[in-house]
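Input set for joint prediction.
Command: fold jointly, output tokens.
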Amino acid sequence: MIAGLGMDIVKTERIKMLLEKNGVAFLHKILAEDEIKEYSSFPLIAAEKIAGKWAAKEAVAKALGCGFGENCAIKDIHILHNSDHAPIVTLSGEAEKYAGKLGVEKIFLTITHEKEYAAATAILEK
Ligand SMILES: CC(C)(COP(=O)(O)OP(=O)(O)OC[C@H]1O[C@@H](n2cnc3c(N)ncnc32)[C@H](O)[C@@H]1OP(=O)(O)O)[C@@H](O)C(=O)NCCC(=O)NCCS
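tokens >
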């Protein structure tokens, strides 16, 4: 049964500016350690990929209905990739507890990005 739906769109230029201004510190602010570790094996971190990840995290937060705050930190939402490079979502911390209370068993996520925008949609199943 569907327990939640969320989507988000992010302007790549906004992420590009934050990356240029704050560099790696910005990545550490929004990405969990496992996400940073996965990126370190990629040859290039494009702003549009980070924009896609940001959109994905917002889409999951919307689907959960918590937004970013005391019930869900941006780094509680982990977006990694399977061997086909499809995105996979796991939760930790308060977000994991929040999803547990909702009875969420699985999160479906899709991400897309072009030069100017990135977007993502998340569906929660219980
Ligand atoms: C998967 C594919 C259709 C993506 O289309 P695209 O127009 O190149 O890229 P988009 O901007 O729309 O989407 C990119 C995002 O798709 C997601 N994605 C990549 N491979 C995926 C896959 N196999 N399944 C689901 N999602 C995938 C990723 O989240 C990626 O963004 P990220 O790397 O920043 O996380 C394309 O890369 C492709 O055809 N790959 C070849 C083989 C393949 O994996 N086919 C899928 C099964 S038939």
